[in-house]
Amino acid sequence: MYKNQLQELAQRSCFNLPSYTCIREGPDHAPRFKATVNFNGEVFESPSFCTTLRQAEHSAAEVALHALANRGPSHSLAARILDETGVYKNLLQEIAQRVGAPLPSYKPVRSGLGHLPVFTCTVELAGIIFTGEPAKNKKQAEKNAAMAAWSSLKQCESHAYVVIY
C-alpha cells in the first residue's frame, strides 16, 4: 500500500519514481532485510530489519510518507499532491487503531445549487470533531476534513506538555 502511494505521489508530482536499495543479512534460511527509498533526492530508511524484501520496501515507503505528511500542508507542489492522495485519511485511521478508538467517521454535507454543489465534511476521531475546507465533491471534502484533523492534532502534539502529579 505505502509503495503504491509513494509511487502515485511521484507520478502526480512529475518526480522520478522512487528507487529502493536493500541490505540483506543473516543466514540463507533466515534472511533479514532493511531498505531505503530515494524519493525526489531524499533518502528514507526502514526503521528495522524485516523478514522479507517486500516488507522492508513497504516500511521505507511508510517512513517516507509519514515524514512528508508530518511537514504538514504547504504551498509546495509535493505537499499539495500529498494532500490530494488521501494520505491524511490513512494516517487518521492508523492513529485510531493505535489508541484503540473507533475508526474515523466522516459526515459530508451537500449545499449550493444543483449544478454547482459545495460539500463540507466533518470527521470524528476519538470523540473530537474536525471540519475541513469546502470542496466541489464529496471525496475532496473528506480529504480536507482529514487534513484539518491531522494538522490540528500535529499542533496539539507540538504544544502538549506532561503534568506529573
Explain what the structure shows.
- By secondary structure, the protein is an alpha+beta fold.
- It folds into 2 domains: 80 residues, 2-Layer Sandwich (Double Stranded RNA Binding Domain); 59 residues, 2-Layer Sandwich (Double Stranded RNA Binding Domain), CATH 3.30.160.20.
- 44% of the residues lie in helices and 25% in strands.
- The chain is built from 5 helices and 6 strands.
- Strands 1-2-3 form a 3-stranded antiparallel beta sheet, with helices on one face.
- Helix 1 crosses helix 2, helix 1 packs across helix 3 and helix 4 crosses helix 5.
- The C terminus is likely disordered.
Task: Offer a few descriptive terms.
alpha+beta, 25% strand, dsRBD_dom, single chain, 2 domains, 165 residues, Double Stranded RNA Binding Domain, disordered C terminus, 3-stranded antiparallel β-sheet
What's the arrangement of secondary structure elements?
Layout: H1 2-13, E1 19-25, E2 32-39, E3 42-45, H2 53-70, H3 77-84, H4 87-99, E4 105-113, E5 116-125, E6 128-131, H5 138-159
InterPro entries: AtDRB-like_DSRM_1, AtDRB-like_DSRM_2, dsRBD_dom
Pfam family, one: dsrm
Domain DRBM: 1-70, 87-155
Oligomer: single chain
As for the CATH topology of the largest domain, it is Double Stranded RNA Binding Domain
Q: Rounded to an integer, what's the Rg over CA atoms? A: 19 Å
Broad shape = elongated
Q: What is the number of helical segments per DSSP (H or I, 4+ residues)? A: 5
As laid out across the biggest beta sheet, the strand order is: 1-2-3
Number of domains: 2
Per CATH, the architecture of the largest domain is 2-Layer Sandwich
Low-confidence blocks of residues: 159-165
Mean pLDDT: 83
Strand content: 25-35%
Q: Give the termini distance in whole angstroms.
A: 43 Å
